[in-house]
Amino acid sequence: MSGWLDLEEVTGGYGSSQVLFGVSFSVDPGEVVTLMGRNGMGKTTTVRSIHGDLGMFTKEDVVIALSNSGESNEVVTILPLLKRKGVTLISITSKPKSALASSADVSLVTPIEREACPLNLAPTSSTTAQLVLGDAIATALLEARGFSAEDFAFSHPGGALGRRLLLKVSDLMHSGDEVPYVSPNTPIQEALPKQLESLHHKFHHLMD
After folding, report:
1. Which of 56, 72, 138, 204 is deepest in the core (most CB within 10 A)?
2. What is the pTM of this model?
3. How do strand 62-66 and strand 17-27 relate by DSSP bridges?
């Protein structure tokens, strides 16, 4: 791996409680990686396991930190470092007076009356509100940067949009020596294998 941040076989936990089991991933500039575990386990342990690499932040970076309470330990712990590095911090939280919101250069508040969870405990409404705000920010950035469908296709060439915008007739059309020729008197049992052979070569050409 050779990304902006690389983790290989990271194992960690608290006392006898094992939380991370050989976690490996690579993060390139501009990418977002989400680590999900049972009951949210793994976030704090991962941050503490790699905190030495947080020194790679520069004043050119922008961090968008999400926390419903704005007091999550894994987020609050790194706030002083981000401030010392001069990193621009944008917070998304439901608590405008929280530690995260108070430390942020830009604080975006997503207030909710209660969670959709019947017990008003599990993050449901709060996570949905943050997702909606995140989508709104992403859409605004797309327009501000003039990001086109073609740009999206080149970033996701394997998806349906990428195929629709990037795949040309010439990618599928047979031409020249690729066109299977047979005489009008060729038996069908001989013509079909020749056609199939041509398709086989075209398929491998596309895969290359």
Report:
1. 72
2. 0.54
3. unpaired
Q: What is the pLDDT of residues 14-35, one digit of tens each?
A: 555 666 666 676 777 777 766 6
Q: Would 97 be classed as within a structural domain?
A: no
User: Does 33 fall in a domain?
Assistant: yes
User: Tell me, what DSSP letter sits at residue 16?
Assistant: T
Domain of residue 196, residue span: 171-207
Write phi, then psi, for 168 (nearest 5 degrees). Answer: -105, 165
Q: Which of 56, 80, 102 is the last residue of a domain?
A: 56
Separation of alpha carbons 174 and 187, rounded Å: 22
Q: Contact, 99 vs 93, CB < 8 A?
A: no
DSSP string over 21-79: EEEEEEE-TT-------GGGTTHHHHHHHHGGGGGG--TT-EEEEE-SSS--HHHHTTH
Is 83 part of any domain? no
The tokens of 66 are what?
A: 């999400």
Distance CA 42, CA 12 (A): 9
Using the 8-state DSSP alphabet, how is residue 158 labeled? T
Residue 109: per-residue pLDDT: 95
Q: Which of 56, 77, 101 is the last residue of a domain?
A: 56
Question: To which residue do tokens 């996570």 refer?
Answer: 127
Closest CA to 1 of 28, 21, 20, 26: 26
Domain count, the chain: 2
